């Protein structure tokens, strides 16, 4: 995000990501001058100072890069819905977004549970800060954990049975989507009504909150698990993404662009 109108209610509140006129994305968006933005895979970028954040000392640039995407995308809903000591938080999916959600929720003091299709990443999840890890392929999981959690952060981009996951929420619990599957996800209203549950969505954070997230990560020594690759490894990396063979974010060394 490199610009917004700066005048609407959301922008005045420091929530530029919800600009009423649409914020300007870093890459492939049309800016206020009618030009396409070309940041993201650049060696240099020009941006108004209101959209600059400071990378704290102690966070290397390669580790900082995913914080500006996965980091803020998961930090924002965790902060908004009050992940804190005494709260029980579920992270659905342990991928690029999910592994950051686990680290952040743990650092905020919440009791963290990971729900994944299988237990093959259980060891990773526990090392990252999860207190519990369950397989959603086991039907007993949804019976055992019914009416338990305050917040569920769904990070997956695949279609899931939302009603089954909503059944895991306690009274006044919220399921928030940060993953964005292309197809519709049906919700039965009686998955919500009897326990006053909520189903929500969340985007990235505003610039102020992004800086807060970076400072929080520096304070708690939180960085993503990354694999640094050169430009000539991008095709191979993409195939590994499709095969779910990533632990847990690829970062491209932009200095290798245009080199063999």
TrEMBL record:
Gene3D superfamilies: Medium-chain alcohol dehydrogenases, catalytic domain, NAD(P)-binding Rossmann-like Domain
Keyword Oxidoreductase included in the entry's annotation: yes
InterPro entries listed in its UniProt record: ADH-like_C, ADH-like_N, CAD-like, GroES-like_sf, NAD(P)-bd_dom_sf
Keywords: Metal-binding, Oxidoreductase, Zinc
Pfam families: ADH_N (PF08240), ADH_zinc_N (PF00107)
Cofactor: Zn(2+)
Domain Alcohol dehydrogenase-like C-terminal: 96-218
SUPFAM superfamilies: GroES-like, NAD(P)-binding Rossmann-fold domains
Domain called Alcohol dehydrogenase-like N-terminal: residue spans: 5-57
Transcription regulation listed as a keyword: no
Coiled coil (residue ranges): none
Residues making up the signal peptide according to the UniProt record: none
Protein name: Alcohol dehydrogenase
Organism: Paenibacillus cookii
